[in-house]
Design brief:
Strand content of chain A: under 5%
Largest interface: A-B, 43 and 43 residues
Radius of gyration of chain A: 29 Å
Largest sheet of chain A: none
Protein name (chains A, B): LOB domain-containing protein 25 isoform X2
Number of helices of chain A: 6
Structural class of chain A: mainly alpha
Distance between the termini of chain A: 100 Å
InterPro entries (chains A, B): LOB
Oligomer: homodimer
Family (chains A, B): Belongs to the LOB domain-containing protein family.
Pfam family, one (chains A, B): LOB
Chain lengths: 129, 129
């Protein structure tokens, strides 16, 4: 009862009345005050509300969660934000692809060597008369 | 001469005088109006300037470029923004790791098989008396 009457984290932060049609309320529960504080600091409340109004209702939760992720990453790393995570992942992908290429080359070399020991053609194969 | 006198893309967008100490000017040249328009739309000019003032001067170019990357990604994909790229990269990493594990398993199986054909123990090894 108390929870449903208390304003959402966004309205509490912005010190405004939280109405039933509040666009923030479903995604910024009062128990997670940092989630709104972070997106407010990085994107601004009006940009967040613009994005929420721009996407379909069933996409809003994903939109808020990705904005919260980006905001947290930018607060932790003001220079690179979550683009830093993209760089790390891209470097890991390149490393793993190289490792896979090397392992595949080993496998091909191995199977070629094994092949030559499997098929014991007579040494005079071409001289057989 | 003209270029150095014309306001930077940020000051032109914000219709204000571009001074010599403009924090935006080194990173938002007039030739790239979209770069500022994008970060303004997603983060807001004041948040961008706050971030620029928060980081060291030699980090500002990287900060602006990562903000421009994030802003463009959010405009293209309002639901996931550049977090969508992170998900794609994470899925690629998982797929590649599985492929590497499978190739390593093949390599171990191959080398074990080859080993057993190399060493031709007599079939009555344990019954030899």
């Amino acid at each position: 009862m108390m929870a449903s009457n208390s304003p959402c984290a966004a309205c509490k932060f912005l010190r405004r009345k939280c109405n039933q049609d509040c666009i923030f309320a479903p995604y910024f529960p009062p128990e997670e005050p940092h989630k709104f504080a972070n997106v407010h600091k990085i994107f601004g409340a009006s940009n967040v509300s613009k994005i929420l109004n721009e996407v379909l209702p069933h996409q809003r939760e994903d939109a808020v969660n990705s904005l919260a992720y980006e905001a947290e990453a930018r607060i932790k790393d003001p220079v690179y934000g979550c683009v830093g995570a993209i760089s790390v992942l891209q470097r890991q992908l390149i490393r793993l692809q190289k490792e896979l290429d090397a392992t595949n080359a080993d496998l091909i070399r191995f199977s070629t060597n094994q092949g030559s020991s499997f098929f014991n053609y007579p040494s005079n194969w071409n001289n057989d008369s």
